[in-house]
């Protein structure tokens, strides 16, 4: 399995090679850079939003600009960051972890990225004045059929490009995972990361067509005068919400399942022991994936749907907390009798687990109509999903960036600045999102550019804005750490974490074709068997 | 009739002061039940996690991890117990929600129509109040006015202590009618009629907000409920309240 030979590392490529590449590692890096860039754009628009909400009244922008910023923030954070960033991890790591030389369909993979890139260019153009889209990321009709909210056709085209990209990537990664595993890597033995990505990609394949259908029908309604959703022609706007949430609820598991996979890898590596309850972890992943398609009505508890259906969906919604809870319990149990190394990635991941617990526990009451009736469309909901997306997914993504950074670049990041950034992120985002929960309980509606001068609300908003800026400094430091270390960091060994997982057994950065010959993994090998490595120092 | 055993059991044990408005009490009950459960679960997970994190850190004498095989009893326990907890929560919510959702019999019915960007209140005798977004802001600075500075014409009069059933619809896009003190909301959907109920016991002025994004002036699409004692309401309304139990005929087109 030893990999020899002199290869030019992937990052020494020319521009032409980058553009025409079908190498999964280069594509993974391109996804990573694109999504990180959009994370920063979306983050800056969030700072604009927070600045405007610092005080009641409109100080810095008018309502239309605010609504456009909020739409930009929502769309970019979800599609480019929370979903897009996992394309980076999946592309770079999946073939390495299963001992393959590339994905199953490398050209399709390149096409996926360039679809994603085209959508990115179009999304950047919506930032120009005059191109603003102001219908929020949900694009509910009839407001989205209104001329005042921007170009629906443009939005639909962006979604279609992204959808095509996601579907192609999903098919590609599922086939790669199922058909191209090296001998010895069985389904039962493969990394939990791979199980999470498998389930996530299955959700994409089943769900993306629903979203594509919803925006297509919206497009037809607006420009071709069909009447799916337009109530003035006999359509039903609630129908859109059903189709939309049929995908857009499961998509939160597309965002969070890969994060679970990354958490499992990092917790195991730095506790130096196998994940506790590995089989139940896999069962929980699939439980979440399947149940995830049966809960979408909880987004519509106050939409005027029949009461009986709310009750059924309130049970399915809260039940999804059970497999999610099992995952958290297992991670905590993995720490038990471990030998825990507190590196930067491990600290990000532990923080993510504690924050995800808050995100999960504040999600439970949203599935209870008796509770939801007061907080639907309030800042409580916003706070809840920012604990899940803004903190859990982001902390895990950054933890993952740091963890695999030596593998991707061959260099080491700065532990000190990584930890400083984490402290700032934790202080800032908890100040921000916790008070968002509180102001939501007090009744503050979401998507408000302005709010009445209720004294508690003003104080809570001021503190949130302070938190948001602390968070921004933390994120800035973390990104700077990655960018500068890629150029100036000290050389990293091939396997700094001493992990037997297959991606660590190739040189850093991996050579163009990963493995000189396809590895045959022996019987006693396991990605979490940390003694195996010391027994087979030279493999 | 609407009180399940669970509900009675809980309301009896929960010594809450009567809230300003109904059915906010049920929201508070749900909230406190959830809060206790959530804080308990958080501590049950986080305290052992921190203990393990400190105790099993890498240090002299703990260079390698010890092997712990799966513990089936533990795993079954932390599957079954959460299942029971969430089923209890959903069932409790079901019991509360029936009260929050179904107006008491003989509630005073008003019709509310949302439009971009304001609310039209129609009373059974034809009296109307329109709250428009520009009544909510200062004409010069465009800042939100505090409750007491908003003109009385933009305020919907509501009798104190009387259950109000709101029939909701919309003229254009989806809005959502959120009665701040009563902690209830429901979408106003064009082409549909939806409903909610509330009752405000203490006279005063209260906010209603639009809770579904509806365009430019979404954040100014508020209304004010001016809750007054029954006699004062009758004076404003121009006649006695429709007799409870015998609802006035009031058809929605």
- Count of alpha/pi helices of chain B: 4
Q: How many discrete structural domains of chain B?
A: 2
Mean pLDDT of chain B: 86
Instruction: Provide the CATH top-level class of chain A.
Output: Mainly Alpha
Tally of alpha and pi helices of chain A? 17
**Count the strands of chain B?**
11
What is the radius of gyration of chain B computed over CA atoms, rounded to a whole number of angstroms?
A: 25 Å
Order of helices and strands of chain A: HHHHHHHHHHHHHHHHH
- CATH architect. name of the largest domain in chain B: Sandwich
Catalytic activity (chain B): 4 Fe(II)-[cytochrome c] + O2 + 8 H(+)(in) = 4 Fe(III)-[cytochrome c] + 2 H2O + 4 H(+)(out)
Pfam family, one (chain B): COX2_TM
Cofactor (chain B): Cu cation
Function (chain B): Subunits I and II form the functional core of the enzyme complex. Electrons originating in cytochrome c are transferred via heme a and Cu(A) to the binuclear center formed by heme a3 and Cu(B).
Describe the overall structure.
The complex is a heterodimer of chains A (539) and B (253). By secondary structure, chain A is mainly alpha-helical. Chain A has a single domain (11-512, 526-532), classed as Cytochrome C Oxidase, Chain A (Up-down Bundle). In chain A, 65% of the residues lie in helices and 0% in strands. Chain A has 17 helices and no strands. Chain A has helices spanning 15-20, 24-53, 63-98, 106-125, 152-179, 192-223, 237-248, 250-271, 278-291, 307-319, 321-335, 344-363, 369-375, 379-409, 415-441, 455-488, 530-535. The longest helix of chain A is centred in the N-terminal third of the chain and has 36 residues, at 63-98. Chain A starts with 14 loop residues before the first helix and ends with a helix. Mean pLDDT of chain A is 92; it is low at 1-6. Chain B has 2 domains: 21-54 and 73-101, no CATH class; 108-237, Immunoglobulin-like. Helices cover 31% and strands 25% of the residues of chain B. Chain B is built from 4 helices and 11 strands. The radius of gyration of chain B is 25 Å and the shape is elongated. Residues 1-16 and 249-253 of chain B have low confidence and may be disordered. The chains are: A mainly alpha (539), B alpha+beta (253). At the A-B interface, helix 3, helix 9, helix 10, helix 11 and helix 12 of A face helix 2, helix 3, strand 8 and strand 10 of B.
